[in-house]
Amino acid sequence: MILDLFAGPGGWSRALAVFGVRDVGLEWDEWACKTRVAAGQLTIRTDVAMYPTWPFLGRTSGLIASPPCQAWSMAGKRLGLLDQPLVHTAVEDLAVGRDTRERLLAACRDERSLLAAEPMRYLHALNTVGEPEWVAMEEVPDVLPLWKQYAAVPRGWGFSVWYGILNAADFGVPQTRRRAILIASRVRTAQPPTPTHAQVAEPDSLFGPGRARWVSMAEALGWGATDRPVPTVCAGGGPGGGPEPFPSGSRKSLSDARERGTWMPRPDGVLLQSRREGTGWKARHGARQNRAADAPAPTFTADAHRWSWSLRSNNQANATVRPLSEPAGTLFFGHRANECTWVAEPASPPTEDTDTPVVPEPIRITAREAGLLQTFPADYPWAGNKGQQFSQIGNAVPPLLAGHLLAPHLGVTVNPDDFTLAA
């Protein structure tokens, strides 16, 4: 079997399913387990730190682990940062079969910190029976020093090991998500997968095939393609009037807009039709024309101002903002997940003979859209409320990245077309 520790909603499992392989996932979170079950993935709901290792001995060909790493997190109260020496001590002890977790846990500022040492407990136990054949681990970039410590242990057992930082965008993921990766194998040279994409497309050369340009959010979501709709926001109803899809103060999703009929297939750009004047654009850019407060606003036609949409990661001043024509920044959702929003700007300022357009209000990203940007399929069965779904998505390994990492161990080739995005 392939054992997946801290399996989450199934990023690794989704990649394996594409290859026709299944794993057994150990996961504690209730809603991540429900998502996995709905996706048809084998799941044991358990605390990885409490589960015994003996059921897997003599049966495990591969070990996958994406442990929580509070000791390296820069978010929240950051108490776990003080636990890093304790985590390193736990890894050192578990590597020789010495279980000092109870004593070390009592000294931890964050009780979750030692979870980052749990994969070593499983690795040591499995190694006593000559397993696993390979290992794949993933976490945030700051965990690289811990992976360096991990790497030394299987090397001593005869593994080939590689660890380093990879950018998911280099492998076709529409997101510049950087992650610390550790790969180990008993039967082949461990090395990172060959990047398939680059920020700027590269032509074929004598040294091999070129790389495609990074996949944009527009491509991944199917917005702007000739056979797919892009959002057409009508702030005052369509040409025939009607209620406003996005009245003042609301934050409707783009998916809601599609369901309400306010999305139209306009591959040449995003248009705004309005029957009411707004001040957002004027406040930021200045108006070319002045209009009395009680004067009627014009209706902009399909040839009027086009909108440039971007994804803003949160509402902080230094938030990452990326246009649809680029990959998203790293998707991370905390307790304020809905602050990740689509924001619009006029593609060009109005001319002297046009009126100041109404800028659409920010529109919250949906779980479906966030999942697509993580390379989960459009119909992935996310369980739980919005917050629970966003938490799962933000913590998941992008399946397409996981596929590139796992393919050499399984003796298969990655076909990006198998990782369906927009549907």
Please identify the oligomeric state.
Answer: single chain
Percentage of residues assigned to helices:
10-25%
Spell out the CATH superfamily of the largest domain. Answer: Vaccinia Virus protein VP39
Dominant shape: globular
Q: How does this model look, in words?
A:
The protein has 423 residues and is α/β, with parallel strands linked by helices. It folds into two domains: 2-205 and 397-418, 3-Layer(aba) Sandwich (Rossmann fold), CATH 3.40.50; 216-326 and 332-373, no CATH class. Helix content is 25%, strand content 17%. The strands form four sheets. Strands 3-2-1-4-5-7-6 form a seven-stranded mixed beta sheet, sandwiched between helices. Helix 1 crosses helix 12 and helix 3 (84-94) packs antiparallel against helix 4. It is globular and about 80 Å long. Residues 225-305 have low confidence and may be disordered. InterPro entries: C5-Methyltransferase (IPR050390), C5_DNA_meth_AS (IPR018117), C5_MeTfrase (IPR001525), SAM-dependent_MTases_sf (IPR029063). It is an enzyme of class 2 (transferase). GO terms for molecular function: methyltransferase activity. Residues 235-270 are annotated as: Disordered. Keywords: Methyltransferase, Restriction system, S-adenosyl-L-methionine, Transferase.
